[in-house]
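quick one, four chains, predict together pls
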Amino acid sequence: MYIWDARIRAIYKDTDQMGIVYYGNYYTWFEVGRNEFIRSLGLSYKDLEAKGIMLPVIESRCSYKTSAKYDDLVVIRTGIREMTGARIIFAYEVIREQDNKLLAKGSTTHAFADAKTLRPVNLKKRCSEYFDRLMNCL
Amino acid sequence: MYIWDARIRAIYKDTDQMGIVYYGNYYTWFEVGRNEFIRSLGLSYKDLEAKGIMLPVIESRCSYKTSAKYDDLVVIRTGIREMTGARIIFAYEVIREQDNKLLAKGSTTHAFADAKTLRPVNLKKRCSEYFDRLMNCL
Amino acid sequence: MYIWDARIRAIYKDTDQMGIVYYGNYYTWFEVGRNEFIRSLGLSYKDLEAKGIMLPVIESRCSYKTSAKYDDLVVIRTGIREMTGARIIFAYEVIREQDNKLLAKGSTTHAFADAKTLRPVNLKKRCSEYFDRLMNCL
Amino acid sequence: MYIWDARIRAIYKDTDQMGIVYYGNYYTWFEVGRNEFIRSLGLSYKDLEAKGIMLPVIESRCSYKTSAKYDDLVVIRTGIREMTGARIIFAYEVIREQDNKLLAKGSTTHAFADAKTLRPVNLKKRCSEYFDRLMNCL
């Protein structure tokens, strides 16, 4: 399975008054992870949109193991867990770089949708090149 | 089961360039939902913190049915799905008020933790009054 | 001068590890303030967009007097400071409801722009009804 | 004047339904800019906090020239505009890397404050090493 590591540093904006990164902000990090994963393949989500395809999220999950703190440098390790012509599941691990500790794990499930109508499309039919590149990551 | 409906209006800040509310922002709405749920019981999360207890999130999930859009007035319907002395699971439904359409469903699982050490505590032992009030919502 | 008071409660998401509301989040509150200001006139920003007009921000400012904290109920007091056919300046005060204390003051300057091209338009010419209603608030 | 360039890529989360980066999010980018500026000096904001000093924002401003868009790689160019023992003003330029176009300019004014009381402190007296390093950037 092909994976990609994106790096990001926790800033003040990410924290809350508990002194840890706000639980909802991991989903923003997941977006960074999947953007960079796609970019690492020589593809771009922006191009996919230009071809008229969007990937709206239909499910998201995260389980939190250890809190990320301000100024932590974290790795967002991203891979593809499952994929069909209709949808794709990205899996993520958030790891604190300093001690390699797993902070959180999660996933996002996306439909392939027409950019104008947001109706489902089959990626294999609409854009076989992207489909093949992504399938190769499994 | 006791439930509480909080109301919030989607603003520009919540949307993304897909023209819909960004998937991660539903978790912010969930926070509004559980804050108002707790307040509706005559309790307050702030008081709980003043008593030395925090509720860090250990798991969160959301499934997205229909996109919320800018200026939508949404109801965040919140209840307690499960609870023990060690943890609590809140369940949420996000409903578009205009047509009563279900936009998203989700849950957050929280540990009861000591505010200083973030170590697990038993709410029943540490704060039986809060424990009983919350258990009554099941 | 016509003003409108919107109310909002500071949540965990708004705070940072300093235990106060993150400085950038006041600009989100300003958006809530101007949305509700416009709505209070019987108008809606969404309708304005439907008429092909947008209000991109060209300048924003905020000065911070006293920190907003978690669970504070705040009033966002909004008015129009200046207006021409080409642009509008909204002014805001953020007030803690509990003790009427001024927390922050700020402003946002917006151009009137065509929704498709983002080029400047004259609101008086393009939508005189909106222009007149807003001018009456000065 | 010493300046430092931090790089960041605009993500979906940063955009709004106008298809551009939300005006309030530039202030988050400013935070990234000043964090990396301080780090580039071999200092860290986290260490400063450990020494009991915080830098609450007392004023912030931004003027927007050209909209940042999704997937734009932007440079946040940060320097110190003014500084006394009591406060510091950081100045920022946000530049689109692709064509070197200036997207926005802004500043944030910070007080030096005691981390516990949030009362003003004199940085020169409390932490002369940091004071000198920062003064050298003017």
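Helices of chain B lie at 26-40, 45-50, 123-126, 128-135.
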